[in-house]
Specification:
six-stranded mixed sheet, Methylamine Dehydrogenase, Chain H, 5 helices, mainly beta, globular, six-stranded antiparallel sheet, binds fe (ii) ion
Length: 476
């Protein structure tokens, strides 16, 4: 048995000299945090017992890799263990020891030669696809994985955060790009996801995954593969929103350094939407004249003979170019908050899209038990000029009401909703977010009461964690 480490108290605050306090979230964190017992300030419900795992970039400088974009930083995992001891949580943070990290951190005495080697590598048949899971985490069968948008998933130990190689699938499906947002289907007891396969024929391969084994659901042919960071789901359908930008497979094959330069915008193409039935694989197709760019869907439902999908859209994909580190560290960082909108897909008739009269948000989360019928969405938002995301918001999409949460110099990450297991109503539970404190130059977990959206507790870390993307709470 491992002895509990001593309890850490909050260190003294440090002031930042920058006017853009959120810029700290885009600086490398060279340190790691071993498993450390930290005091919970406030109270958390007694039913809250489990492990939150979360990933994001932690390193933005590497001798053998140029990192200029937020999405390209090397992964750092953060773990919060709560519920073992009253008033105390255990927190750790660790750089993910991926193969991509190992390559990137190699000493590089000859940078020009390395650049040349990177350029000729594809001609030698090598495809150094990254396994650096900086986007999301999931439990696939008995494996915990950190995911990016390639099909190589990094396994790690959920207690020690040690890397355990990559996840091997015992099947024949192949693909090159995928999402770090598989959908868990509680009724069917499986995940759904897709991957894009580039070759003489380009297809989106929709599949079902039972534990680590993937089963082909449907191949969707396309001559212009859309870049889709995520896709939608209703109780019985997967929904693919195929708007620009489009991936240029040849560029992707031969230009390994900058993924976003492999994308091309064509607004005149509009948006193709395809729904695939989760059991039969049957496909329905619609078209919207408007070109939709989206990172994240919120939730989908089935009403009568229509499908509906709520999602967050942008007028175009320029937000991708804006999320470069130089902009994010500047005094005028970009506003990466999209509009909440609803697509309606009738069985017989054209697709329509409407905006919902609620504030814009990003990194949306719902009560996973209400998937297919949810009202509440929790996300990050931005109100203050000169900062990146600076608050959390809870939105009731049925009533059109919203409740914000923010604090001076605080820059929150994705709000993860954890339901009260005894609860009847949708918003009974807590919301947990890893927040950057720009004044104190360190991070903290906040625990909000989901119903009132007010703070119940916080756990202060002895270091800052750069702004990350997604995580999951795994209840005991
Ligand atoms: Fe995402």
């Amino acid at each position: 048995m491992v002895a509990a480490p001593p309890l850490r108290r909050s260190p003294e605050p440090v002031r930042s000299s920058s006017r853009n306090l959120s810029a700290l979230g885009f600086r490398s964190q060279p340190k790691e945090l071993p498993r450390t017992r930290l005091r919970i300030e406030g109270d958390v419900p007694t039913w809250l017992r489990g492990t939150l795992l979360r990933t994001g970039p932690g390193t933005f400088e590497a001798p053998s890799r140029d990192i200029e974009h937020w999405f390209m930083g090397l992964a750092m995992l953060v773990r919060l263990r709560i519920g073992d001891e009253p008033g105390v949580a255990e927190v750790s943070a660790k750089h993910l020891k991926s193969h991509a990290r190992e390559r990137a951190m190699r000493p590089n005495p000859f940078p020009r030669l390395r650049a040349l080697a990177e350029r000729i590598r594809p001609f030698l048949g090598e495809r150094p696809t990254t396994d650096d899971g900086s986007v999301n985490v999931a439990r696939i069968g008995d494996a915990m994985v950190a995911m990016t948008e390639t099909t190589r998933r990094a396994r790690f130990d959920p207690t020690t955060l040690e890397a355990l190689g990559t996840l091997e699938h015992r099947d024949v499906l192949e693909g090159h790009l995928t999402t770090a947002h598989p959908h868990w289907d509680a009724k069917r007891g499986c995940h759904f996801n897709y991957m894009s396969r580039f070759g003489p024929k380009v297809v989106h391969v929709a599949y079902r995954m039972d534990a680590g084994r993937r089963h082909l659901l449907r191949e969707l042919e396309t001559d212009r593969p859309a870049y889709m960071h995520s896709f939608g789901a209703t109780p019985n359908h997967l929904i693919f929103v195929e708007g620009p930008p489009f991936v240029q497979p040849l560029k992707l094959r031969f230009l390994t350094a900058d993924f976003f330069s492999c994308l091309t915008w064509d607004g005149a193409a509009g948006t193709r939407i395809r729904a695939v039935h989760k059991d039969s694989g049957a496909v329905q197709t619609w078209h919207l004249d408007e070109p939709l760019f989206t990172f994240h869907t919120i939730d989908g439902r089935e009403t009568g003979d229509s499908l509906e999908l709520d999602l967050i859209t942008y007028p175009d994909s320029s937000v991708l170019q804006e999320l470069v580190l130089e902009r994010l560290r500047s005094e005028g960082p970009p506003k990466a908050i999209g509009a909440v909108r609803r697509i309606r897909l009738p069985s017989h008739g054209p697709a329509t899209i409407d905006g919902l009269d609620v504030p814009g948000l990003e990194l949306p989360r719902i009560d996973p038990r209400r998937a297919g019928d949810s009202r509440m969405v929790y996300g990050v938002t931005n109100d203050l000029p000169g900062t990146f995301v600076d608050g959390l918001v809870k939105v009731d999409r049925a009533k059109g009401t919203h409740t914000p949460w923010r604090g001076d110099g605080l820059f929150p990450g994705e709000p993860i909703f954890v339901p009260d297991p005894r609860a009847a109503s949708e918003d009974e539970g807590v919301v947990i977010s890893l927040v950057l404190d720009g004044h104190r130059e360190r991070s903290l977990f906040v625990v909000l009461d989901a119903k009132s959206f007010t703070e119940r507790a916080r756990i202060e870390l002895p270091l800052f964690v750069p702004q990350g993307f997604h995580g999951e709470f795994f209840a005991d």
